[in-house]
Design a protein that fits this description.
The protein contains ten helices and no strands. Residues 1-7 have low confidence and may be disordered. It is elongated. It has helices spanning 3-6, 12-31, 37-44, 48-54, 58-83, 86-105, 108-117, 122-143, 152-165, 172-185. The protein is mostly helical.
C-alpha cells in the first residue's frame, strides 16, 4: 500500500528517491527514450525494486516525468514575467516550451501509450500551456508591448505547428527563426 493510499505522508527518503528517479529519468529520456529502467535506477543510486515501488511500469515513470516537465514549463511563465518585460518573457518562454517539446520526442512511444490510455490528458495539457501564454499576453497587453487581441489559444496552435512540423534532428536555428516570427505576430 502506498503512502497516498494509507493517508500518511511519504517518508523523506522515499520522497528523495522518487524525486531523484524523476530527475534522472528526465535527463535520460531527453536523449534516449528507450533507456533501460535498470540504468535509470542505477544512475539514481537506488535499486530496481525501489524504482518499481514508485513507478510500477515504464509508462508510470514517463507520466511522472511528463508531469514534472509540464509543471516546470507552465510555472516558468510567471518567473519569466517577474524577471523580464512581457515581450522578452514571451520569447524566453517559447524557448523553454520548445525545449519541453523536444524532450518529449525521446519519450514519444511511451507518451503515445499514456495518451491513448487517458493517463495524460491532451486537452488538460493544452489548457495549462494556453493559460501560461495567456498570462504573458495579458501582461504584455497591459504594458502595450503585446497585442491586446492576441488569443492565447491561437498562439498555442501556432507553437504546436512549429514544433510538430519540424522533423526529429532538424536545425534548431530554423525553430528559433520560426519562434521569432510567432513572437513578432503578437507585437503591436
Amino acid at each position: 500500500m502506498s503512502s497516498s493510499e494509507t493517508g500518511r505522508a511519504a517518508r523523506a527518503d522515499a520522497r528523495r528517491n522518487r524525486e531523484k528517479l524523476v530527475e534522472v529519468a528526465r535527463a535520460a529520456f531527453a536523449t534516449d527514450g528507450s533507456v533501460a529502467l535498470e540504468t535509470i535506477a542505477r544512475a539514481a543510486g537506488v535499486g530496481i525494486g525501489t524504482l518499481y515501488r514508485h513507478f510500477p511500469t515504464r509508462e508510470a515513470l514517463v507520466e511522472a516525468v511528463y508531469a514534472a516537465e509540464l509543471d516546470d514549463v507552465t510555472a516558468s511563465a510567471s518567473a519569466l514575467l517577474a524577471q523580464h518585460p512581457p515581450a522578452v518573457a514571451l520569447r524566453a518562454w517559447m524557448d523553454r516550451y520548445a525545449a519541453f517539446f523536444a524532450t518529449k520526442r525521446g519519450m514519444a512511444d511511451a507518451l503515445r501509450v499514456n495518451l491513448a490510455s487517458g493517463r495524460i490528458a491532451t486537452p488538460a495539457t493544452r489548457a495549462r500551456i494556453t493559460a501560461a501564454i495567456g498570462a504573458i499576453l495579458e501582461a504584455g497587453a497591459r504594458a502595450g508591448t503585446l497585442r491586446p487581441d492576441a488569443d492565447p489559444e491561437d498562439v498555442t496552435f501556432l507553437l504546436l505547428g512549429v514544433f510538430l512540423s519540424a522533423p526529429a534532428g532538424h536545425d534548431p536555428e530554423r525553430t528559433r527563426r520560426l519562434l521569432d516570427l510567432v513572437a513578432d505576430a503578437v507585437r503591436p
